[in-house]
Design goal:
Length: 383
Amino acid sequence: MKIARVVTVPEAFVHIRYLLKYLVISGCDVTLVSSPGEYGETLKNENACRMYELNIAREINLISDLISVFKLIFYFRKEKFDIVHSSTPKAGLLCAVAGIFVPHTVFIHTFTGQRWATLRGPLRALLKFLDKLVIRLNSKCYADSFSQIKFLEKENVAAIGQIECLHKGSYGGIDCERFDAARFPNAREALCERLGLQQTDILLLFVGRLTKDKGVEDLVAAFIKANKFNSRIKLVLLGKFEPELDPLNQITVDLIHQHKDVFYEGFSSEPERYFSACDFLCLPSYREGFGTVIIEAASCGLPSIGTRIPGLEDAIVDGETGLLVKLGEVDSLTESICRLAIDETLRKKMAQLAQDRAKRDYSTQLLSKLQVDEYIKLTGRQA
């Protein structure tokens, strides 16, 4: 079976890294299509995949987008793929339009969140229309969470039953062997020593882009309040700022760099080391497709706090594997941070339930097999 997986930037392949390996082992001929980047070359080399580099603009650019569509049409017709499977919004739109001119290929798209969910006005309406177009033009569409499907149906972007979700959700599952705290028995000691902390301190972790959409302004504001209540609570931030795309306000940036109990660690290719060292995760995001980082943390034995939005409602079982708070309510977020910080028994109980659920329902092995089964069903061909 000949398969093309298409995303806007190669880093978006990170969540299907195991799936790519599984596809190749199963005998599939896999090509990765994305904008140029070092990570794409890394995946190509480690998985024996082919790589087709195409400049795909993240923002709307009519001329650039038309050029990309024409190049995709030419490439897809030449390669004669059995399946073209896109994810990320721009890649999904370009593939869907190109698919009109590429017969005998099954086009699939997976929704992993909606950028328009936090927008207002004409741009929101335009992006919603483009998502409707993607659904109409593709042979099959998936979402990585059931709550995201309900959201798309409620917003009249998709009809009931038009989008499906594999198993219990997530984009590609998580590698439970990688995200295993047993691999890092000294992680907490090493992190505390490096940051000048006590091992009895309570380490609150954030992993993701440091942007407004990820709720970082709310998180920092809530942490400042929680830290005044209990000075043992420390905030560890893992990720990159995106000043051009979604900048934080200057007050938040200054607090991140100047507050004595906030520790900005930048980007790490091994977040599992931090999951193994900290006490709980917080993701007060304004939009998510699923919230894979929640399940990665859970696999390492961390409960999480998240906002009650599509995606995170699937990733966190409220009151069991973590806590859900109302979107944008800093006081409620502060209260939940303090609750988990104070109650070690509750943290440990939630940690165990979260870990059991992650390993049972979201392993990459399980999700990869289900995805290949879907490919076989859609094409009528064995891998």
